[in-house]
């Protein structure tokens, strides 16, 4: 959090510090919009700092600070729409988009920043580990709706695989820099010794590259979905590498209806399915779809993301 | 006796002034050349190595002679995270440099203009601004060289002559 406050304009970081002292808030996002008050939210509630708005000059200054006064270094980031800063926090940006050859070339005049505070939660996987491994880790598919904690869970498993407990060579294809929040290719969130990361690499290519070059025991990818991913997964499995990945969906039934995933199911590639909701494990299924674990006291109604 | 001493003193002073002026004429083109080199190194650091401004300035200061090395070193050292903008730092140091070195207002203005663009654009745009500043420096360099050739030798002798002239007037 300090690393974020440091780069924010002075008046805003002061407002945030004062606010935090008053309201013990576990801030998830700080949203800055030009000529609007600053928004803080913890994923459920929204708070506004109305004392002073975020100005255009502030926006310019903020970008300058993020880039160490060297905007030319953000070219790639401005094209992708997000910037990862020290501490693994991610700043999403939007504004005036410059298009070249039907491709986004850059974002000019950035008008909105969404600073997502990274708090790597470790230990979420711990209670369920015995479901996920016997001799080695099972091929696992993590299922959940957006914001259910899929990536957090995935990160935790990756960290566990690569740690001294399992000592598996763990390779991660981090297409959107979400799992590891790498800066210059060095992961900020994952500290286990046996982790290799392909940052911002398309998943299908990335998986093949890793098999050829890094001789991994486990490959970890986020959000599989299209046919190319499925083909690559087929390759991975037949190369004798274990696979852990996530997919969007509410239930086991949900995803078995998706044509791309269906292919994987028919080949019964995955031995474990973990269903997540609201950062909690709802259910763990085996390769036949039989329930191994069913969570208690699971909230079934999803909490709305923003109560405006 | 006192008169003789005073005369010598006056002549000595004007010789020094003449020399100083002549030195300025010699040094200005030299310094402009250094600045051009510095900008070229900066361009390489920014365009090819994609280093931050701070690192680039450090690299520049390691590769060019004094007093520019110190100038760039100071600017780089002053860039901290709690700073809001880069330009005020640049401006301050260029002003200090201008006051104690033989560069002229024109040269200073070019450097200040350039400072406003530093780190504010993408690579291609930044490169253009560096090239532009180099072109402008080229122009002032030519002018400085001309002046040097025209007045360089004369300045020293004019110093001596003016000294003698004043002494003759006062006698």
From TrEMBL, chain A:
This is Stage III sporulation protein AA. It comes from Gracilibacillus pellucidus. The lineage of its organism: Bacteria, Bacillati, Bacillota, Bacilli, Bacillales.
TrEMBL record, chain B:
It comes from the Bacteria. This is Stage III sporulation protein SpoIIIAB. The lineage of its organism: Bacteria, Bacillati, Bacillota, Bacilli, Bacillales.
């Amino acid at each position: 959090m300090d690393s974020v406050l440091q780069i924010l304009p002075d008046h805003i970081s002061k407002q945030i510090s004062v606010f935090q002292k008053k309201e013990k808030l576990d801030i998830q996002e700080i949203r800055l919009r030009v000529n609007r008050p600053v928004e803080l939210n913890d994923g459920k509630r929204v708070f506004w700092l109305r004392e002073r708005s975020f100005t255009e000059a502030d926006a310019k200054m903020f970008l300058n600070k993020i880039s160490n006064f060297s905007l030319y270094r953000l070219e790639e980031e401005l094209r992708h729409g997000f910037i990862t800063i020290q501490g693994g926090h991610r700043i999403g940006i939007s504004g005036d988009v410059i298009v070249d050859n039907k491709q986004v070339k850059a974002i000019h005049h950035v008008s909105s920043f969404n600073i997502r505070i990274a708090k790597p939660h470790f230990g979420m996987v711990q209670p369920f580990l015995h479901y996920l491994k016997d001799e080695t880790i099972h091929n696992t598919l993590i299922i959940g709706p957006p914001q259910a904690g899929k990536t957090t869970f995935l990160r935790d498993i990756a960290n566990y695989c690569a740690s001294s407990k399992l000592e598996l060579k763990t390779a991660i294809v981090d297409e959107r820099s979400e799992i590891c929040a790498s800066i210059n290719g060095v992961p900020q969130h994952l500290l286990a010794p046996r982790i290799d990361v392909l940052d911002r690499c398309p998943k299908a290519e990335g998986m093949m590259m890793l098999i050829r070059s890094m001789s991994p025991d486990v490959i970890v990818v986020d959000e599989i979905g299209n046919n190319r991913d499925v083909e690559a997964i087929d390759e991975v499995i037949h190369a004798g590498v274990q696979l852990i990945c996530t997919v969007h969906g509410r239930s086991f039934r949900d995803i078995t209806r998706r044509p791309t995933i269906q292919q994987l199911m028919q080949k019964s590639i995955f031995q474990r399915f973990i269903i997540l909701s609201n950062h909690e494990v709802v259910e763990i299924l085996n390769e036949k779809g039989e329930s191994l674990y069913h969570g208690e006291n699971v909230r079934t109604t999803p909490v709305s993301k923003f109560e405006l | 006796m006192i008169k003789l001493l005073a005369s010598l003193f006056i002549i000595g002073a004007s010789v020094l002034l003449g020399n100083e002026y002549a030195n300025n004429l010699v040094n200005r083109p030299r310094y402009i050349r250094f600045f051009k080199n510095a900008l070229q190194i900066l361009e390489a650091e920014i365009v090819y190595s994609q280093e931050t401004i701070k690192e680039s300035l450090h690299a520049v200061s390691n590769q060019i002679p004094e007093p520019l090395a110190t100038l760039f070193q100071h600017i780089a050292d002053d860039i901290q995270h709690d700073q809001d903008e880069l330009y005020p730092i640049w401006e301050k140091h260029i002003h200090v440099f201008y006051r104690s070195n033989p560069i002229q207002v024109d040269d200073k203005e070019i450097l200040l203009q350039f400072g406003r663009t530093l780190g504010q654009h993408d690579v291609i745009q930044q490169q253009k601004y560096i090239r532009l500043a180099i072109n402008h420096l080229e122009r002032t360099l030519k002018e400085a060289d001309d002046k040097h050739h025209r007045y360089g030798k004369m300045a020293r002798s004019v110093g001596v002559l003016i000294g003698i002239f004043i002494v003759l007037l006062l006698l």
